[in-house]
Batch of 2 targets.
Target 1
Amino acid sequence: MSRVLVGVKRVIDYAVKVRVKPDKTGVVTDGVKHSMNPFDEIAIEEAIRMKEKKLVSEIIAVSCGPAQAQDTIRTALAMGADKGIHVEISGSDYDTLQPIHVSKILAKLAQDEKADLVIVGKQAIDDDSNQTAQMTAALLDWPQATFASKVDKTDSGLTVTREIDGGLETIKCKMPAVISADLRLNEPRYATLPNIMKAKKKPIKKITAKDLGVDTTARIRVVSVEEPPVRQAGSIVPDVDTLIAKLKEGGHV
């Protein structure tokens, strides 16, 4: 049976209005509610459903980040993951941590933990990069099934329905493999109180990127972070003729 490695990222909660710091070096994170990246919740849920079907034997939740990333791992454990790995990265190193660094960490952990399936969310809602799954698969030289909206395990591997621009695409891939979860893959469960209590006893291993031999030196320099321009207020027009006249004035038609 398979062992599954699931990446879970701590992000600013989706319901929070993000504010840019006055010095434009980034966004305000102090005192701001954080939670698990929604696509990663879907990834964890899919791994748990596979375990419930006796398709996988163990689920390992991994998060890279500061001490608070452990809260995200505990959420995954309360949902049903078996153990956690916290890759401690903080301060300026975390500010410039990129998908390439996370991919190298996940690839190394997949090998160390003898996992034969890696599941991550298709993208994080903070940086929207959509790169980690693809690069992890490339580093491991494993097949990849990205934007998955349905996953079925077969004797020969996996049959995955993918969400693409033109509709849906069904592919078959062999194991080991890397999957990235799309929005319609499943509906994540809520952690129950008994499971939250049980999660406190589940193990979380702490390591650093250096322990894994991964260099997290910054490859980018943030020049400036700015808010999008404020949209101009609309106006109500009395009839279609006035609308067309206004559009012509603005050079839109």
Target 2
Amino acid sequence: MDLNIILYLSAYLIAAIPFGFILAKVFADVDVRKEGSGNIGATNVLRVLKEKAPHLAKKLTIITFALDATKGMIVIFVAMALGADDSVLWTLAVLSVVGHCFSPFLGFEGGKGVATGFGVLLVMLPVESLIAIVVWVISSKVLKISSLSSLIGLTALLISSYIIHPDM
């Protein structure tokens, strides 16, 4: 089997691991798919566990975000070590987000892909990603709306990417 195919399948399947669902279920006995927004991501983990298990809410949210970001990075780092082309790396990045959003482990449902997307972008566009996270943190503190703050952070990433790489 072609190495790229193995990398592509690995990116999708590793990113499909529903960490928010697993952590909330194991540590708080809560199915986040049936509470709040029904999403498996860090934002819904926080929202649901604030109500159901407040003593675990922040810890499990941080762990969920970190694991969701990291799962998108793992295969990209492996592919980089193997000398993969940029086109392969970007394909892995997309497949990681798709895996998180459409997990075969959850009937092809999942999260919104924000943390996983951030993880892959942190590897592929590190400076722009750091700018985006600073903008997201400020926006979320001011607006207190995670989804809108994520969109504002993404906008900052796109603008900074254009400024840093105007020839791409």
